[in-house]
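Reopening this ticket.

The earlier resolution said the output was attached, but the attachment link was broken on my side. Pasting everything inline this time so it's all in one place.
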Amino acid sequence: MLALRGLKRLKSVLSQHGNTTVRSVTTTSHEVRHKDDTLVKMENPFKEPQKGCVLCSVTVDFKNTQLLSQFISPHTGRIYGRHITGLCGRKQKEVSKAVKKAHSMGFMSVTHKHPQFMRDPNICGIKHLD
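Inline output:
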């Protein structure tokens, strides 16, 4: 009974101040109003740029040993993982297949990195102990 009286009092107070339950939206998230009230289309400022790896725009070939040598360890000859290279899954698989093919075809050494490529700049930011 007390709850009903409270609701009646609340309704009477709200009706005096206008209907507060109806909300109005003036603009959408991708439109902005100018002084003359014309809508202008604009890009979403919160949209993140599309992420891509270093090799997304490059074709990986097993004959390009200088590129492939960037993704193997200079001391052991092992292929670095995705968490180290920063490549996407597709390109990491392409690189690992190309390195294995280059090993089997004789283009690259299996146990160590070619000394000529030791001075190349690091693509994936790996710090070696030299």
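Reporter confirms the inline version is readable. The chain has four helices and two strands. Residues 73 and 79 are 6 Å apart (CA to CA).
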